[in-house]
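On clarity, I found the account of how folds are encoded harder to follow than it need be. Since the whole study asks how a given chain folds, the encoding of that fold should be made plain. For illustration, here is how one protein appears when written out as sequence plus structure tokens:
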Amino acid sequence: MDDHQVYLEKISAFSRMLQLQGLNVSPQETADACRILIEIGFEDRVTVHQVLRTIYAKSREEQLIFDRVFDSFFISEEAIRQQAKEQAEKEAEME
């Protein structure tokens, strides 16, 4: 699977999550997001957040919903490490 396909699948899933939370997401917005992310990549979480928020969230209410969905969907590397550490600690306690 090439990188473009990965971007499309990830953004499609993210768009669907936004829709499930009540945002009106158009196919064009999803296409725009995918096209931009192919250019910039996912490496800089802050930039990805800003770009996608500009595309998907028009009102303050939509921005709040967007932020919540983004934070749960695009989990940071730091959060992943913290979750792994907590899981390892739990497993150690069980032994």
